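Let's inspect a concrete specimen:
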Amino acid sequence: MPARLADRKSAPPKGREHSGPTVGVALGGGGARGLAHIHVIEALDEMGIRPTVMAGTSIGSIIGAGVAAGMSGRDIHEFAEETLGQKAEVLSRIWRSRPSSISELVEGGVRLGQFNVERILRSFLPESIPGTFAELAIPLRVAATDYYAHETLVMEEGDLPRALAASSAIPAVFRPIQHRGRLLIDGGFSNPVPFDLLRDRADIVIAVDVVGAPVAESPKIPNTIDLSIGASQIVMQQVVALKLKEWRPHILLRPAVSRYKVLDFLKIANVLESSRSIREETKRAVEAAFEGIESTRS
């Protein structure tokens, strides 16, 4: 993180968390579409609401880790803009994440089109995010997919950056993560919006779904990578729909981000502008939820 952001990291917002209902926030996966999560965190900050527990998948786990580490929405917003808003900065960080030796290059085998997600992620994480879950100010539950067990693996202790990498390991782009005898890939394949991980852990559970769906923007047939990711979006939406039949979060937010691709991080300004309306939607939904709980208690 740039020094000026690290030095002035905002104090966690104070307010309703001390006397009102507790709030849990589940942030879903969606690659660059997940930058819209920032609006939701900033809206909660403006309302003086600090989550008491977080859950995240893929990009949602990364932003969730920032919140759990004590970063404000403004901190995350500014860090994301300074890091992703400049192509030169992105390329510099990717260059710094390159293997330093031949042995590191061939570690785990050379796979065409599969990059080391853990190495790249560590070069992009803000310094505020610690090395372990135990160092977080707020409990965080991270969802990854156990490839051979065909199920969600929930990580909430141990090496935090490694857990975030496992949750973000998109097969078409990154190598899987080997962790304690398990082969882990992106959590979105088994739990795209992990609101169920917060069931009974907070009075109000807010879920943010940025999975999106394929959008026809031109008559051209999508390339192989876009087709694969688009097909996975369709499957993930079905997974979310089934999960909602079992249990619904108190608030479900869906920013308008479908037009953006998983790796459109350099379009951060566009993603944030397109999804800006989710701020007011978040505030209205949270106010209504609080009023509903307060009316039942009075």
Remarks:
- Residues 1-8, 100-113 have pLDDT under 50 and may be disordered.
- The CA atoms of residues 47 and 283 lie 8 Å apart.
- Strands lie at 23-27, 53-57, 140-146, 151-155, 177-179, 182-185, 204-208, 251-253.
